[in-house]
């Protein structure tokens, strides 16, 4: 799929004579970010896909929040990978150096974190889609790291389209055309072992210093005891399966991936977010419907409006950065990235990932009251009419009752209007006066409406689902009430 996307991009890029350097948007958080590419060799495992029977050798990129100092424009991907992609697309008329045109902004040198930030950055592992390099998520992951997360992206050799190592050798993927359940389960199991091995390395002082140079001599830089995991496509399935078998991870996120492996039937006891494209729901994916009843902890399903499968990557940003024709852009949007727009897609996705990861790591805030930013003009989410939202931290949940008519205003005879919402120990319930919904209805599945994503300064709003609920109700003349634990 990735090659089809790039074929359209590069064909029209050459027709328009694209300039040599294409800068990508800078990260939006308060930290500059240091990138470090490293090779990790698992001496305990023979690579099952290596015809020579070598040890499993992974490539990872770490994204470390650092000082807000000088930055450098650097290549988006390394040379051998760029040449590989250029050669593949020669039949579409591209010339040497096309893929090397992309640039990202990174720190110029390893520096301690700014004094305004406390360090103790939570460690987050990321697994990419099948047949997709970890490098195609660099912009998205760099933006996430700029909000105070230490991110590790992992390439799965023979699974990614190409993996490039520091000594110049490369491994070209062979799994891009797998189709059977057995093949997916096999690839998934190898990926899960990869992710667990990488987490192991963060607890090895020598390896940790190699992949996170800023951590050398600074034990407080990273928070290693509450790791989280997320991934895109098969990487999302990898996150779910890894979360099930490894208790060191406290929560996970699936970005638009169908689920495979035993987690579908066995489920999860820890919090899990399923974040799909506009058409990816439990109704369209049997694996999502199957796993949902078995998610016993906090769970949430989101859909991003006007998005496609590869909206959850750097491709929307890459397409917007190029001066390609409207015709070419429409083709790519229709099949692969949607019409939400590159920068807006990245902002929405990173904001919700950030808020969710903070919840996984730190729990709910002491007060569930949410304030609405003045510039929040449009609702971000709208709920489906059925379902349940819950989390696993309610020891003594309060009694939740519908608000009085004096509080919400009694609708006149014949009127049909929503009532208020009550936040009960983190559980949101929307009460309505409509005759068919007299009982409290809890709503867990939301669809993101990207129409007017607000320009929120600084950090992403906490618990954006609740914030969106409040915005929705305020528009109808009601508001959220609060019950404290």
Automatic annotation (TrEMBL):
EC number: 3.1.1.47
Gene Ontology MF terms in the entry: 1-alkyl-2-acetylglycerophosphocholine esterase activity
Region Disordered: start-end pairs: 393-418
Gene3D superfamilies in alphabetical order: alpha/beta hydrolase
Record keywords, A-Z: Hydrolase, Lipid degradation, Lipid metabolism, Signal
PANTHER family associated with the record: PAF ACETYLHYDROLASE FAMILY PROTEIN (PTHR10272:SF14), PLATELET-ACTIVATING FACTOR ACETYLHYDROLASE (PTHR10272)
InterPro entries: AB_hydrolase_fold
Enzyme class per UniProt: hydrolase
Gene Ontology biological process terms from the UniProt entry: lipid catabolic process
N-terminal signal peptide: 1-19
Name the record gives this protein: 1-alkyl-2-acetylglycerophosphocholine esterase
